[in-house]
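Model the whole thing, not chain by chain.
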Amino acid sequence: MSTDTTLNHTAPQNLATIDPEMAAIVQAEFDRQQHTIELIASENLASTAVMEAQGSVLTNKYAEGYPGRRYYGGCEEVDKAEELAKKRAQALFKTDYYVNVQAHSGSQANNAAYLAAGMTPGDRVLGMSLDHGGHLTHGFRLNFSGRDYETAAYGVERDTGAIDYDKLAAQAKEFKPKLLIAGASNYSRVIDFERFAAIAKDVGAVLLVDMAHIAGLVAAGLHPSPFGHADLVTTTTHKTLRGPRGGMVFARDLELQKKVNSRVFPGLQGGPLMHVIAAKAVAFGEALKPEYATYMKRVQDSASAMADRFIEQGWQVVSGGTDNHLFSLNVMSQGVTGKEAEDLLHSVGITVNKNLIPYDEQPAQTASGIRIGTPAVCSRGFGVSEAVQIADLIDRALKARGDAAALEAVGKDVRALCDRFPIY
Ligand code: DSN
């Protein structure tokens, strides 16, 4: 009989028994999530089924390669898990694009997509500026995308907060990128993928759509789909899709897919995380159910209602509202920096991240805005009415700067709202 108490299958021991120190941290994080209003637009609450798959024995398995073509024996069950994840991913987005579900993250997925597009050092990429809502991997100077390639960035218009597609077309014509990227981390308007495809075609660029933020809306039919327009589509699986942390890459045709596969493995990664791939399959299965589309609609309606409420209260919302799950609040419009707002809201139990707004005059560490998203709060059951209450709580907190009693009262109301909606 084993004397190793960490691996005693006849009397399995839980985390609290084996490692009370870490168990306390996990419990404290659970409590933090339960008692705070989570408005970070890229976060969500994975289901217990997703977490069960992610915490399963599949974590024990090495499976370098792809289903049916592995470099290790004993892969028959994980092969099924990966095939199921792929089949469900295609069904979810109603697409016959090929898919690779092994990317460990969105950044890895994008890196693989660059390489599959044939990018070599010094080649040109045109993506959305980080300051205007883009992503690090779309050409930011400190990221691989900005270090290895020659980059140019498009942005949004000062007056509309939206992309001007005619301007973008002219910029693409002048810059002649080899890779054009559509997609953002902080853009609240519909993205016109058809127009992006026309621009890419016009200049002979490969079109990559990074739909990480809006994937859930696309799956639910609440945002136009990039499939049929993009050469490559990447996404994370943990944002609106509500799965485990990870990424995936879709390719329009078999030739491109072969490149994606070889760039993911062995190009960038070694062994795939089979437990995470299993959890991705579970999340896609959940998202294929009609309840998921209802959830995504609530996410969209709640974001829109919250943005409208802020405008009623006199705050400036970038682009004047939202079509998706997020928006940026220009807190500087009432003299509060993004950093001050983030800290103040944290003190009353509301979690947001400070964010640059387009044409921001503040440095990134201070910023003039906060980004607000509704996926996580809607997963715990909030809807439009609670979203409007949150806008009121944020308004009260930001206007009560320096008033300890008023802030304490907001904190109590935040807690009461959270107590009505257990996270699990
Ligand atoms: N860092 C993520 C976000 O917060 O949007 C994007 O990868």
